[in-house]
Amino acid sequence: MKFRIVAFAAVTSIFRANFASAGESVDMDAVASAQDHQLENQARIDYAIAAIRSDEDLHRFLASAQSIDSPLNALSESSRRRFLSSLRFNDKGLTSFAYADLETELTPTQIYRVLKLFGAEHDAAFFSRAHIETDDDVKIMDMPRTPIDYRDYECAKRATCTQSNFSICTGNC
């Protein structure tokens, strides 16, 4: 996480320095576009290398010894069941999931750890009602939001997010 924040700041600084050193004014739209592009690329990498990218991966994970120390165990049994049943995948990985139980029961750090299993840790900043308890929670909530995932939408079919309260539609849809 620290690497992403530092990299994000570095790109911003480089763009500003390049424009300023050329004696030109800084085109903030170009900087914002470059930042969005970097965030989108990072999100796509996160999804591509996620530990759980399919229903089969999920079943293997839950049956393995790893599940004993899983961040999913921070959820109550009923919330964990609802969250797991909300997960949708395609060949790219996670396409949508319900977030209400995560936001109600977990801190941003716990949410980040859960979503990291699926490559969606960048979405932790969406959870504005999560209980903030630590400095890391504050840092997570201050992370820039990815422009490819949509809160209160779910993946209805390939490349089609439809409105759905308490769901997130990912860029994999």
Q: What can be said about this structure in brief?
A:
With 173 residues, the chain is an alpha+beta fold. The protein has helices spanning 2-21, 28-48, 55-63, 77-86, 100-105, 108-116, 135-141; strands spanning 88-90, 93-98, 150-157, 160-169. It has one domain (1-173).
Note down, in words, how this protein is organized:
- By secondary structure, the protein is α+β, with helices and mostly antiparallel strands.
- It has one domain.
- The chain has seven helices and four strands, in the order ααααββαααββ.
- A four-stranded antiparallel sheet has the order 1-2-4-3.
- A hairpin with a 2-residue loop joins β1 and β2.
- The longest helix has 21 residues.
- The N terminus is likely disordered.
Task: Report helical residue fraction.
Answer: 40-55%
The Rg value, from CA coordinates, equals 17 Å
Order of neighbouring strands in the sheet with most strands: 1-2-4-3
Discrete helix count: 7
Q: Give the overall form.
A: globular
Which blocks of ≥5 consecutive residues have pLDDT under 50?
1-21
* Helix-strand string: HHHHEEHHHEE
Number of domains: 1
Largest sheet: 4 strands, antiparallel
What structural class do the secondary elements suggest? alpha+beta
Beta percentage is 15-25%
Question: Topology of this structure?
Answer:
Elements (H helix, E strand, L loop, with lengths): L1 H20 L6 H21 L6 H9 L13 H10 L1 E3 L2 E6 L1 H6 L2 H9 L18 H7 L8 E8 L2 E10 L4
Antiparallel strand pairs: 1-2, 2-4, 3-4
Helix pairs in contact: 1-2
